[in-house]
Amino acid sequence: MQITFLGTSSGVPTRSRNVSAVGLRLPQRAEFWLFDCGEGTQHQILRSELKISQLRRIFITHLHGDHIFGLMGLLASYGLAGNPNRIDIYGPPGLNEYLQACQRYSYTHLSYPLKVYTVRPGVVYEDEEYTVICGNLKHRVTAFGYRIVEKDRPGRFNVEKAAQMGIPPGPMYGQLKRGEKVTLPDGRTINGADLCGPTEIGRKIAYCTDTIYCDGAVDLAQDADVLIHEATFAHQDADLAFERLHSTSTMAAQVALAAGVKQLIMTHFSPRYAPGNDLQLDDLLKEARAIFPHTQMAYDFFSHEVPRRRTNEAG
């Protein structure tokens, strides 16, 4: 699982930072999922290592323009890419109506299946490998955060040991790989778990923006390997954060600390902290690290590989 930040500014783009969009690459599937889609996101994808042809799912947090103004353009371009696949989109009430209006007034016809799901707190997507959960955040409009959970996988199956034990290759190997017990023709019962390495613990990622500090963000981020959290303002601008229902760098760090995450990556920075101003982004990073040392600051095209953990590494 690889996280790629396509836009890390808040509200408006700057020369070095586009507005909100984060890609989650799933290499074993040759696909990626997109979280939010600010204006110009399709250009950012072209400049990244992500391939638009591999886009399968889009998750939208809320309907402010800096999170959705790139959506219709991206969907229109995707349809011209050649042999497009179905795209599923998840987001708050009103998202489907917004997209229908965009298509109607721009005379856009999509040449591929598109399904829009209106989300509410709870599981919004699940398959054999992943579960995606959404929860309420606290912003000026209805806003959701997302939690992506990769399911645990059995450890590596020891083929050599199985052969030494006289277990014949075939469908039985599949059962043993899943950790199941099987009975051999000679009457022996073999526990598949004894032939597999340590269980690979599924990775967990939380995406929380836009929001002020709230219990919903802490719940979504519980024990996450990576928490992506907005940090629009510096601590000294907390009054602005409360007024606009955005987070400061210290609020993001407090969410990470309360949730017991492994890594915090901050994003969605106000342009007011540009180089040359009294306060700069390095100051926000120092503020956050004073509370939660394992903090990084995202920038456009920054990629982070989420490492796997085994059972003996958990905790």
UniProtKB/TrEMBL annotation:
Molecular function via GO: 3'-tRNA processing endoribonuclease activity; identical protein binding; zinc ion binding
Q: Where is the active site?
A: D66 (proton acceptor)
Q: Which reaction does it catalyse?
A: Endonucleolytic cleavage of RNA, removing extra 3' nucleotides from tRNA precursor, generating 3' termini of tRNAs. A 3'-hydroxy group is left at the tRNA terminus and a 5'-phosphoryl group is left at the trailer molecule
Q: How does it assemble?
A: Homodimer.
**Domain Metallo-beta-lactamase, which positions?**
200-269
> Which Pfam families does the protein's record reference?
Anti-Pycsar_Apyc1, Lactamase_B_2
> Which positions does UniProt annotate for Zn(2+) 2 binding?
D66, H67, D210, H268
Q: Any idea which UniProt keywords this protein has?
A: Endonuclease, Hydrolase, Metal-binding, Nuclease, tRNA processing, Zinc
SUPFAM superfamilies referenced in this protein's UniProt entry, alphabetically: Metallo-hydrolase/oxidoreductase
Q: Native species of this protein?
A: Microseira wollei NIES-4236
The UniProt record gives the binding positions of Zn(2+) 1 as H62, H64, H139, D210
Q: What's the top EC group for this one? A: hydrolase
Query: What remark does the entry make about the cofactor?
Result: Binds 2 Zn(2+) ions.
What is this protein's name?
A: Ribonuclease Z
The record's listing under InterPro entries reads:
Metallo-B-lactamas (IPR001279), RibonucZ/Hydroxyglut_hydro (IPR036866), RNase_Z/BN (IPR013471)
Q: Which HAMAP family match?
A: RNase_Z_BN (MF_01818)
Which cofactors, by name?
Zn(2+)
Record's function text: Zinc phosphodiesterase, which displays some tRNA 3'-processing endonuclease activity. Probably involved in tRNA maturation, by removing a 3'-trailer from precursor tRNA.
The protein's matches in NCBIfam families, at most eight in alphabetical order, are given as: PRK00055.1-3, RNase_Z
Q: Which family does it belong to?
A: Belongs to the RNase Z family.
* EC number, as in UniProt: 3.1.26.11
